[in-house]
């Protein structure tokens, strides 16, 4: 590992060694963070409007293009860390958002309703929350591979299911059990995998470095912080499904 590595390539480990584990490259909701959020929103809304006005064949090409962009974005981080000698087990694509990259790929290839439901109900709030409360700020500056990758891939992960809804997919609260089965079914093996690899996928190994899990720790203690995910997931699902439940109720009332 080069001592004089350009800041752009530096990982969390190097930043922690040089600047300390509490260093953050910019403050939450400071100027840089707000610009990143604004650009992400403009990108998502602009793409959704373009998609909505496109023909069926153009929509297919756009969806494939977004899928390719997601895969390329994930590959860029892995290659960047590997080629600079910084790769370790924590860069495996086993966080929920990284797994959703492959759910997007599978949906693009097979057009499955369970994929669409999971991406709508979990991927949108998860990726949006990551943008709003980023856990990747312990790098030298905003102009780093990790920060740029994290912003772009989470914006793409919000965009993909938004396009599915724009195309006409109608989420249903009746499919929520499928969503929960996917979430807990994937989290269980990862919980046990975290221990031998000393990783923190799904933030199940320790609460630190993440604003949300740190808040759970303050409320419930380090031993029980994981329990904070249960009401958080319930609230997220309620927020995602409430508009559709209300719309269905109004539709039945008109009849």
From TrEMBL:
Record bears the keyword Transmembrane: yes
Transmembrane residue ranges: 32-50, 62-83, 89-107, 119-137, 143-166, 178-194, 224-247
Keyword Transcription regulation carried by entry: no
Keyword vocabulary terms for this entry: Membrane, Transmembrane, Transmembrane helix
Domain of life (superkingdom): Bacteria
Protein name: TIGR02206 family protein
Organism: Faecalibacterium duncaniae (strain DSM 17677 / JCM 31915 / A2-165)
């Amino acid at each position: 590992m080069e001592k004089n590595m350009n800041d752009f390539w530096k990982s969390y480990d190097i930043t922690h060694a040089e600047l300390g584990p509490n260093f953050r490259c910019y403050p939450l909701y400071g100027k840089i963070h707000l610009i990143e959020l604004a650009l992400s929103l403009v990108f998502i809304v602009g793409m959704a409007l373009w998609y909505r006005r496109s023909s069926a064949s153009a929509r297919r090409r756009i969806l494939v293009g977004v899928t390719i962009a997601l895969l390329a974005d994930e590959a860029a981080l892995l290659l960047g860390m590997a080629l600079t000698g910084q790769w370790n087990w924590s860069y495996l694509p086993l966080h929920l958002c990284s797994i959703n990259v492959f759910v997007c790929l599978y949906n693009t290839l097979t057009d499955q309703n369970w994929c669409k439901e999971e991406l709508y109900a979990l991927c949108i709030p998860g990726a949006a929350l990551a943008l709003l409360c980023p856990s990747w700020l312990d790098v030298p500056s905003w102009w780093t591979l990790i920060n740029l990758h994290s912003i772009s891939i989470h914006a793409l992960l919000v965009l993909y299911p938004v396009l599915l809804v724009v195309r006409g997919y109608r989420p249903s609260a009746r499919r929520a059990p499928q969503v929960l089965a996917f979430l807990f079914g994937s989290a269980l093996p990862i919980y046990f995998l975290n221990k031998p690899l000393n990783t923190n996928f799904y933030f199940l190994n320790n609460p630190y470095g993440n604003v949300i899990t740190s808040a759970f720790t303050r409320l419930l203690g380090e031993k029980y912080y994981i329990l904070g995910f249960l009401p958080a997931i319930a609230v997220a699902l309620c927020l995602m499904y409430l508009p559709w439940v209300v719309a269905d109720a109004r539709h039945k009332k008109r009849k």
